[in-house]
Amino acid sequence: MRAPARVFGILAKEANTVVLLRRGPSRHTLMLTWDLKTDKITPGQWLKGRVHELNCDVSPDGKYLVALCSNYSEAHRKRHPDQEIPWTWTVICRPPYFTALTLWTGPLIHELAGGVWTSNHHLRMAASSELAAPEKPIPGWLTVVPWIGWWVAEVPLYEQIMANKGWQVISKQMERPLAMTWKSQTKWCRKRGRTPIIRCDGVILRVWKRGTICRVDEGCRLRWELWDRKGRVVRTWISENPASFWMEVDKAGRVVFAENGCLYRWTSFPDGEPTLVADLNNYTFTEVPPPSSATRW
Core-most of 15, 101, 129, 147, by most CB within 10 Å? Predict the structure, then answer.
């Protein structure tokens, strides 16, 4: 039996749009867009290679995606003989198409590690050194600046991306036994007047009027929890891979998430049950030429 597709979503901060990265088979990724107003799913291009989901961000208006991609296969290197270092690149493109409006190449994943959109006209590129010139020119209305520091690593960059979208990043210091649960650790911290801390990779929270989404990174796995307004756990999901589960809240305050290659909406949370929006498991790799709108700014 074929494993379900891994679907990761990136919600635009200002638009009712989600950029979806559907992975499966493992070396192929399809980009799609999800219009949260109409539930229309628009498939775009496939990429032969790996998209590092936690290093990707979409502009607030949903028009542009910055993505970290890699392909270490010999076939990919032969397709790009003109590039000295072709196997890792950071690209800016128009969802749902991977066709590069511009790109930067780098020898190691974390030397060019994606970026964070701070506005529709300003992109901070995570890098371990000053940025080289892009492969294609950048329009005058877009400012791209290097963001040099420890956050070029995957998890810290993801936390910066999520914090920019309104998520709360909890302290990550290791100050208590690993075996402690969230509840016992919270009680332990309250007695000492400290902030709750989970593992070394931390917790991020998305609080809205109906409840809270809690994403707990436990190192070897992820735990997602939905809490009601009183802080009671309504439902829990366990994920072994960051790209195999995703959850957010749309502009109307409805929970949207991806699980086992399917998209769901929980309109009446915490009451009722989630509703299936679309099953993305049946897509297969196809060469898709970009429309002219995806090749220009």
Answer: 101
Alpha-carbon distance of 72 to 24, in angstroms, equals: 17
Q: Which long-range contacts (CB under 8 A, 24 or more apart) does 12-15 make?
A: 12/58, 12/59, 12/60, 12/61, 12/62, 13/60, 13/117, 13/164, 13/165, 13/166, 14/60, 14/61, 14/62, 14/120, 15/60, 15/61, 15/62
Beta strand 88-93 with 65-70: parallel, antiparallel or unpaired?
antiparallel
> Does position 119 have pLDDT exceeding 80, yes or no?
yes
Residue 177 confidence (pLDDT) above 70: no
Give tens-digit pLDDT for 227-245: 999 999 999 999 888 778 9
271, 71 Cβ separation under 8 angstroms: no
- Which strands, in side-by-side order, build the sheet including 211-217? 168-169, 203-208, 211-217, 222-227, 233-239
Could you tell me which residues are beta bridge partners of residue 44? none
pLDDT digits 0-9 by tens, 123-144: 998 876 677 788 899 999 999 9
Distant-in-sequence contacts of 67-73, Cβ < 8 A, 24+ apart: 67/91, 67/93, 67/98, 67/114, 68/109, 68/112, 68/113, 68/114, 69/98, 70/109, 71/27, 73/27, 73/48, 73/49
* CA 106 centroid distance within chain: 21
Q: For residues 272 and 99, give the distance between their C-alpha atoms in angstroms, rounded to a whole number.
A: 41
Cβ pair 265, 254 in contact under 8 A:
yes
Distance CA 249, CA 162 (A): 12
What are the residues facing 124 on neighbouring strands?
A: 116, 145
Whole-prediction pTM: 0.85
